[in-house]
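Bug #77: duplicate submission created two jobs. Keeping one. Sequence:
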Amino acid sequence: MTRVWQERLDHLKAVIEADVAAGSYYGAVLRVARGGVIAFDEAIGAEDSAGARPLSKDGVFSIFSTTKAFTNILVLRAIEMGRFALTTKVSDVIPEFTGAPRDKVTFFHLLTHTTGMPGVWLPRPGMYLDRLDELLAGVIEAVPGNVEPGTRCDYSPLANHVLMGEALRRTDPKHRAFRDIVHEDLFEPLGMTSTSYGVRPDLKPCHVVPDLRGTVPIHHKSRTLPGDHGFFEDEVNEAPHVGCCSSVPDLWRFAEMLRRGGELDGVRILSPRIIAMARQVWTGDMPNEIYKAVALRAGWEAPPASMGLGFNVRGQGIHHHQLGTLTTPETFGNYGAGSSLYWIDPVLDMSFVCLTAGVMPQAANIERFQKLSDLAVSAVV
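Kept job's structure:
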């Protein structure tokens, strides 16, 4: 590592330490690599506001919507294996998903968040999130098609990935449960030993219990545990949109698989071709309605959605963006609820994985990750 790299990386660490000291969030675990060589691997700060429980590099975090990345990848894999296509109507796989105009929705629309359905956090007030069959019933009954598919990009917090999770289950040749499909076809082959739907008993000692600090507009209730967000401490769930916990080392292995074109340690998950397609922008100039609202409230210009096939993409232009402004346009990744982010820059050959404690409001989180992403690029390129 060159002296310049080290000075810039020391500055990156100092910036995080200063933000934690200022109370912006409690702490972060961050890994940055170029060409598969790890340049920065640090746990900074703590799990809690008092600073009583320091973070560790192998800490296990509830990763919120970063969970969607795993469902997306297995849907792309199912497309490659011919179980359905980007052009397949969802109703062809899930016949009860009926009613105009949502009967025109395809898997392309699900992956690009252009279904025409509204961004619904919960189909029914107070429902539990742990069972896929109940989530599916809620989507079928209570999430309508508002506009023609393909005419609007409206980020789907829940419905799209519930439908994709059910499609994976219904087309699985082994007739497995969704949770088993993800474990056996993705986590196990990639050696992601601390990633799970629900907090397994062996992961509880290193689990960072999320402090949402009033930043998320809904409750995540558990059938068995108290509190507004007990779901994130349940041992088992099958929520394809929000149910995973993971660690930075595990997410880095996932990101490395994507950086390497779909393969890691001799295990191939996807082809390079479908990853190249997935990291392109497929939503044109359409804004992402949920982030348009965030931008306007913050006094920013509303950015384009820049959605790929399941990935958030950096895209062209300079806008407030979690994936940074110094990254290249095909940089792609996923993020979750003011706390988690991974991205891969295929041109700079970089990967970035960060999990944090103390969930931030959306605009502040975008600014935080934009800053850290740009600092990382300036340090190792």
